[in-house]
């Protein structure tokens, strides 16, 4: 790849974000490699500044929504809890998934694999974007319009042996969200436009931060530590991550064109950031926000310290990448920052033991 094609990166296994209930990350940036492109300093600054800004949105709002999600009694909004056992196994599962995708792309036609993935993420993206928009729709939906209630019910068997398979309740607001999300989905499916990609990517990331809950800080450290090793190995030790990232066409990354100033919305030379670099640190930052809330001190010290640490780590990733002209595994910098900063704060406040012993709620 050329210098303009390198960046903090994406783990292709984020493609199974829904199936694995988490994504982790990263590796290298797979950009438009059909022709060498030298980005202007302005274009580069705009692209990476926009990526950092977009990465902060799902972390900040996803963390806030995770607090109310943890208190929800609605089964549809119940979070998925990640235990220490899940955290220890995840780097192994992610490695197997990554290598499996690598073999698939080597053996089978890339065109057909990406067609299947496009359909899969088309459905997931519509559902994720609809769920993301739901709180906003509740605020802006005109009170003059009727908000009818609906129920989707599938059962198996009959009489006393009847068993519910699907029992989903929704209303008019949800249908409007679904309709808008479907329009974005069709746009993405037909055009693969980078804005449609980002809308789906932001929705996936926000849902991940909101609904994936670490049960305690120790589990978070196990998960981040394991993925730290995973990320460094697959980026620096092999070409597997790069190969899959360059072959993988799915909204599992945020992208922003470095030639936007020259070509406008039709720009095609992208800088990119993998969703794993957002979701994995994001669920840890959300955990610290819930820890802040549990202390009942009307303070968000740990949340803000970890949030600032994320900005620092991501900025450092970009700086090192451009200094050494080589793609960098973002978790190499994000993990020490996001774990180290809050731990140092806890040491100064004398709350380190409580931080590691208290649960996520």
UniProtKB/TrEMBL annotation:
Question: What is its subcellular localisation?
Answer: Endoplasmic reticulum membrane; Membrane
Signal peptide coordinates: none
Is NAD among this UniProt entry's keywords? Answer: no
Which Gene Ontology cellular component annotation is one that this UniProt entry carries?
Answer: lumenal side of endoplasmic reticulum membrane
Alphabetized UniProt keyword annotations: Endoplasmic reticulum, Hydrolase, Membrane, Transmembrane, Transmembrane helix
| UniProt keyword Cytoplasm present | no
Alphabetized InterPro entries for the sequence: Peptidase_A22B_SPP, Preselin/SPP
Where does it primarily localize? endoplasmic reticulum
As for membrane topology, the entry says:
Multi-pass membrane protein
GO terms of molecular function = aspartic endopeptidase activity, intramembrane cleaving
List the transmembrane segments. 45-67, 87-105, 111-129, 196-214, 221-245, 270-289, 301-324, 330-348
Per the UniProt entry, what is one GO biological process?
A: signal peptide processing
Q: Which SMART domains match?
A: PSN (SM00730)
Q: What family does this chain come from, according to its entry?
A: Belongs to the peptidase A22B family.
PANTHER family noted in UniProt: MINOR HISTOCOMPATIBILITY ANTIGEN H13, SIGNAL PEPTIDE PEPTIDASE
Q: What is this protein called?
A: Histocompatibility (minor) 13
